[in-house]
Specification:
Blueprint (H helix, E strand, L loop, with lengths): L1 H8 L18 E9 L6 E6 L4 E4 L18 E8 L5 E7 L4 H4 L10 H4 L6 E7 L6 E6 L10 E12 L4 E10 L5 E7 L11 E4 L8 E9 L2 E8 L5 E7 L7 E3 L11 E7 L6 E7 L6 E7 L6 E5 L6 E2 L6 E9 H11 L2
Parallel strand pairs: 3-20
Antiparallel strand pairs: 1-2, 1-21, 2-3, 4-5, 5-6, 6-7, 8-9, 9-10, 10-11, 12-13, 13-14, 14-15, 16-17, 17-18, 18-19
């Protein structure tokens, strides 16, 4: 039950009083993956020291339970980002797709499914930490930000980046009005990560307006921002767009980046420490049991297929069927601290 203890610590832990500082890649020694499980609708974490084999913390049980932090009593689509200040920023979808079965509500969805669509929700969960153990939290209701947002059908799959031109943290996500087309939007947030400071603006939409673009993931490389996303253009899969700006001007590229025969989602790109190689990781929800797929690139043009977890070079040791993951670099001290806390 240590995950619940950690959450209770937030009230007594003054995160803003802690010292943080930027950390260079040369200081990095491990990889931290966050993901959720359909079974738990909670936050899970896994560590790797080589970028190939990942071991889940807390014996593969949740590190933070969704029913303690989310309005719908469950979270999905976690994303973690290390800011230029050295702090960690965690964003998650506030959504439980099995809430009726769990007794959290009387209806399948929070609102009418015909009017608002599958998995409709209204909120995101934002959390900040300086040590990856103690977290502050904010539940952001997007339908309350403005009258023109009162009809939103969903706000999903949030991710965080830093807009160098604006000098601000930027949260971007999938959103739709009613049961309309899904598009990628963005907002700016304050440094405490508990308040939205702008209204949602379109980040990217598919050239054919009848096709949804969801699950954006931004990586800055080669002086440009590279946006990987899911295109629901036939079989859902991963595509790529490029811009000189974090928040606009993404140029559509028609090529597919994944290697799957069936549908996949949730792209996340992370760098191998000390190498000019980047890994594109994605969630293959069309196979049973579902799994993660991987591809590797050095130029963001050509990608080498690395296969799936436990079917190639990428391995898990104590967990299976992760959902919608994200990976960051951490230091040796940070990795050891997590292991000592969760595995004792």
């Amino acid at each position: 039950m240590r995950w619940f203890f950690v959450f209770l610590l937030v009230a007594a832990f003054n995160l803003s009083a802690q010292n943080t500082s930027p950390v260079d890649e040369k200081d990095m020694a491990a990889y931290l993956m966050v993901f959720h499980s359909d079974k738990t609708h909670s936050l899970h974490m896994a560590l790797s020291y080589d970028g190939y084999t990942f071991t889940a913390l807390n014996n593969a049980k949740p590190v933070i339970s969704g029913d303690t932090i989310a309005l719908q009593k469950g979270i999905r689509d976690p994303h973690i980002f290390r800011g230029p200040d050295g702090a960690f920023y965690l964003a998650m979808t506030d959504l439980h797709i099995y809430a009726k079965d769990k007794g959290y509500r009387l209806t399948e969805w929070e609102r009418d499914g015909e009017k608002y669509g599958w998995g409709n929700n209204k909120a995101l969960v934002l959390m900040k930490s300086v040590d990856l153990i103690n977290w502050s939290r904010a539940n952001i209701r997007f339908d309350l930000l403005s009258d023109r947002l009162s009809d939103i059908g969903c706000v999903w799959a949030p991710e965080v980046t830093y807009d160098n031109e604006k000098g601000k943290l930027m949260v971007y996500f999938t959103m739709r009005h009613g049961n309309g087309q899904n598009k990628l939007y963005y907002v700016y947030v304050n440094n405490d990560f508990n308040k939205v400071e702008s209204l949602p603006e379109v980040l990217f939409e598919y050239p054919q307006n009848s096709i949804s673009a969801i699950d954006g993931d931004i990586t800055f490389w080669g002086g440009k921002y590279h946006l990987f996303y899911v295109a629901h253009d036939g079989i859902a899969g991963i595509k790529h767009a490029i811009s000189e700006h974090a928040n606009k001007g993404y140029e559509y590229l028609p090529e597919w980046c994944d290697y799957e025969d069936g549908a996949c989602e949730a792209p996340n790109v992370w760098k191998r420490i000390g190498e000019d190689k980047w890994v594109l990781m994605y969630d293959i929800y069309s196979i049973n049991p579902h799994n993660f797929g991987f591809a590797e690139t050095s130029d963001f043009i050509s990608f080498k297929n690395l296969g799936h977890f436990n079917e190639g070079v990428m391995k898990t040791t104590n967990f299976s069927s992760p959902k919608h993951g994200a990976v960051i670099h951490i230091t040796l001290d940070e990795a050891k601290r997590l292991e000592e806390f969760w595995n004792r």
